[in-house]
Amino acid sequence: MAVKLNPDKEIVKSVREGLKRTGGYCPCRVQRTEDYKCICKEFREQIADPEFEGFCHCMLYYKSKDNDKDKKEN
C-alpha cells in the first residue's frame, strides 16, 4: 500500500491553497468538522481498506492497493 500525492501539480497546488484558506479542512466540503480535516476521515477509512485504490475526495492523495501480500503468496 502506498499513499502518494496526485501527480498533477496543478491539482496539488489548487488543493493546498484551499487547505491554507480553510485552516486545513477539505476545501471541497462546505462543513468544517474534524471529519473533514485533511487527511479526512473518509480517506483514512479508505486507506484502511485493502481493496480500495483511488483518490481521496479532493484528489490530493492517491492510494494504491497492497500488492506485497500477493507477491508473498506466489
Describe the 3D structure:
This protein has one domain (2-73). By secondary structure, the protein is an alpha+beta fold. It is built from 3 helices and 3 strands, in the order βααββα.
Give the tags.
alpha+beta, single chain, 74 residues, 3 strands, three-stranded antiparallel sheet
Query: Which regions have little confidence, pLDDT < 50, spanning 5+ residues?
Result: 70-74
> How many strands in all?
3
Gyration radius (Cα, Å) is: 14 Å
Query: Can you summarize the main beta sheet?
Result: 3 strands, antiparallel
Distance between the termini: 18 Å
Order of neighbouring strands in the sheet with most strands:
1-3-2
**Count of DSSP-assigned helices:** 3
Order of helices and strands: EHHEEH
Based on Cα principal axes, name the global outline: flat
Share in helix: 25-40%
Strand content: 5-15%
* Number of spatially distinct domains: 1
Helix and strand content put the structural class at alpha+beta
Instruction: Provide mean pLDDT, rounded.
Output: 91
